Automatic annotation (TrEMBL), chain A:
Organism of derivation: Arapaima gigas
Identification of the protein by name: ATP synthase subunit a
Membrane-topology annotation of the record: Multi-pass membrane protein
Keyword presence, Transmembrane helix: yes
GO MF entries: proton-transporting ATP synthase activity, rotational mechanism
Length: 227, 70
């Protein structure tokens, strides 16, 4: 069966049963469960330190009312980083390349921030649609622009993560295919292509972590405006 | 803007001020881009204007066109 370059993004199935549920739930096995000990082992301590540092930094600019989102955003970050990094392994399925999944994360989180702002701070939420100091003639135009940008936020959130991961995986597959086929034709060019592939893989590892962080950071920024 | 209360610093976001330092009169008192209420009223007025334009074209009678066609 001839495979296209986009077949790596098709949902994995086994005897007709989609395995995306396993792809989403099994990575949690990799993380140690925090125990009620005074001193945990090194891995648990490292995990707790990382989550504490990240949560502290993320929620510094957010008011007290938004701190109840700490567990959600910290686990969302760990979830996305794990899925993205596991997807860098050869022949593994990356769930975050699916637009449906990323939109399923982005739209409810964005909508929750908007509804929280509308429910508890309606005046601030409405006033936020007009930047301070806008000249009189620009007010209606800028309000319409800000409203459109408000509704584009979840789309941008989902598509940003999907496009970055998909483009990275596609590039890796293209360059690795080129390096393999050039190996028997022009070995020197194949060596250069392999070097490029190595650098691209390092870049994609960074992109995998950064895009997960950007997703969570943007959700926290939307929350910051609403609480 | 940061303020100190009971030994801790609390930061308030820019734009969440009550705008007490501005003294507008007349129309600008309710519709301006500096105070919280002024910005809110501008947003509501813009949405009302867009809704009014939409309703105007939606409910516009089309009888004149039918008479002209006959």
């Amino acid at each position: 069966m001839t495979l296209s370059f986009f077949d790596q993004f098709s949902l994995t199935t086994f005897m007709g049963i989609p395995l995306i549920a396993l792809a989403l739930t099994l990575p949690w096995i990799l993380f140690p469960t925090p125990q009620n000990r005074c001193l945990n082992n090194r891995l648990s301590t490292l995990q707790a330190w990382f989550i504490r540092q990240f949560t502290h930094q993320l929620f510094l600019p957010i008011n007290q009312g938004g701190h109840k989102w700490a567990l959600l955003l910290a686990s969302l970050l760990i979830f996305l980083i794990t899925l993205n990094l596991l997807g860098m392994l050869p022949y593994t399925f990356t769930p975050t390349t699916q637009l449906s999944m990323n939109m399923g994360l982005a739209i409810p989180l964005w909508l929750a921030t908007v509804l929280i702002g509308a429910r508890y701070q309606p005046n601030h939420t409405l006033a936020h649609l007009l930047p301070v100091g806008t000249p009189g003639l620009l007010i209606p135009i800028l309000i319409m622009i800000e409203t459109i940008s408000l509704f584009i936020r979840p789309i941008a959130l989902g598509i940003r993560l999907t496009a970055n991961l998909t483009a990275g995986h596609l590039l890796i597959q293209l360059i690795s295919t080129a390096a393999f086929h050039l190996l028997f034709i022009m070995p020197s060019v194949s060596l250069l292509t392999t070097t490029l592939l190595l650098l691209l893989t390092i870049l994609e590892l960074a992109v995998a972590i950064i895009q997960a962080y950007v997703f969570v950071l943007l959700v926290s920024l939307y929350l910051q405006e609403s609480v | 803007m940061a303020n100190r209360s009971s030994g801790r610093w609390y930061c308030t976001m820019a734009g969440h001020d009550a705008g007490n330092q501005y003294q507008f009169t007349g129309f600008a008192k309710y519709f301006n881009s500096y105070t919280l209420q002024g910005r809110k009223n501008c947003v509501l007025a813009t949405y009302a204007g867009i809704a009014a334009i939409f309703l105007f074209f939606k409910l516009k009678p089309k009888k004149q066109k039918q008479i002209a066609e006959k």
